[in-house]
Amino acid sequence: MTERLPVLDKYTGDVIAELPVAGPDQADEAIASATGAVGQLPYQERALALRRAARLLDERRDTVVAQYVAETGFTPADATTELDRTLLVLELCAQEALRLTGEMVPVQAATGHEDSLCFTLRVPVGVVAAITPFNAPLSTVAHKIAPALAAGNAVVLKPAEQTPMSAISLVQALLDAGLPEQLLHLLHGPGETVGDHLVRHPDVRYITFTGSTETGRHIRAVSGLARTHLELGSNAPTLLWRDADLELALPLVARAGYRKAGQVCTSVQRLLVHETIADEVVARLTALVQEITYGDPRAPGTQVGPLIDTEAAERAEGLVGDAVDRGSRLLTGGTRKGALMAPAVLAGLPDAARLASEEAFAPLVAVDTVGSLEEAARKANATRYGLQTGVFCQDLDVALTFTRLLQTGGVMINDTSSCHPDPMPYGGVKDSGQGVEGPRYAVQDMTDARTVLIRHRPRYFS
Ligand code: NAD
Prior knowledge:
Strand 12 and strand 13 (340-341) form a beta hairpin. The protein starts with a strand and ends in an 8-residue tail after the last strand. Helix 5 (139-150) crosses helix 15. The protein is globular. By secondary structure, it is of the alpha/beta class. The strands form 5 sheets. Strands 11-14-15-10-9-16-17 form a 7-stranded mixed sheet, sandwiched between helices. It has a 6-stranded mixed sheet with strand order 6-5-4-7-8-18, sandwiched between helices. It has helices at 24-37, 43-59, 61-72, 76-99, 139-150, 165-176, 191-200, 213-222, 246-256, 278-290, 310-325, 354-357, 373-381, 396-405, 439-445; strands at residues 4-8, 15-20, 117-124, 127-131, 154-158, 184-186, 204-210, 227-231, 237-240, 270-274, 329-332, 336-337, 340-341, 344-347, 364-370, 388-392, 410-413, 433-434, 447-454. The chain is 39% helix and 20% strand. The model has no long low-confidence stretch (mean pLDDT 97).
């Protein structure tokens, strides 16, 4: 009998769906079917399918949002933001399909090739395995499958087992939009079995993965010669320099540290604050966070719902307890009931606290003070992660000096670490990942350059 995967409503605990778990034979069949479909769809049809899918998703908005809220525990506002981002990603990838091109290569420098013509074609890399995490079940999936399809590849997608319903909606919209089914396969099940089978498969040429650093490390170890794109864990800092515009910064921090219950890879986890403004920042941020309504994500006004499961909330509670044991002050929140955690602010973050270096993935911000830019950079870098960093500062010389001192994938000046307009190149360094996402960059990376040389002998005037 086929094993079933129950999908739970993250607030009520009700079973909202039961999906068939893919076995190895099904995964093999999907890869074989995908292999035969690579490069088969003309550019304009790729763009058309992506655009039509965006329109269909938009038309199905109410259902998609309701399903998203149920499977994630995030609020309808978070769902809507993510859906709108998904529509944009589909559109941007459609545009990339229409301008995908190689380049002319000036080979005339090489003896004997004075008159040769050389150029590159961008050709599909092959079968792409896309493996995605629970916390952005629409837009992260779109950032993987849409560029892969725009580039002419065929995709086998395995979404997170906790939140597969949004992926089903996205895949269905693409198929309803006319995408041939051989180009896009959806497999459900645990990462340890279904995901593992995909990443070890010799016919998978490209693996695009977002998830934890531990899983990313495993994928690199077992995936052989497949190209891997990895978006991994984080412990993102944001700096408030002494001249920071607090009217701008604090509401953004109060959102970026807590939306989706802090389960965002770029979520502000550490707020580094210049010592001259630390007291004011702590008082004002605490007041803002105390106003955050948390609980049932469907209740009007709720800004923060539960964590993905009780285990995740218990882990977050443990991190808060560890920080307090080592000398942090818990100013608000941090209490837990099941998977629900009250949004927390901590002041003071000893270097030895686990929160200083590990990823919390929870609704909390730890405020730490700094006296100099060097100290701010040292603290920002004192983690194995390096995804994105925010800095609020009026003096661009300071902001750019800080930028140069950091070990990070991106620096958001006068915004938080969580700022992520979808067209930009986005990716981490160190244990936060390899490669960059963003439609233009992903499409390039999901193609190979095929070099074409034409030797020709021009007829010169005699
Ligand atoms: P996870 O690593 O547990 O799971 C991610 C995906 O990998 C799931 O689909 C899972 O089934 C699959 N998987 C698990 N084991 C596997 C294996 N052995 N082989 C193949 N696939 C396997 O991560 P999660 O808990 O779903 O997501 C949270 C993590 O994702 C956090 O660390 C967060 O920082 C990270 N994340 C990073 C970014 C980024 O842009 N850098 C964005 C979102 C989330």
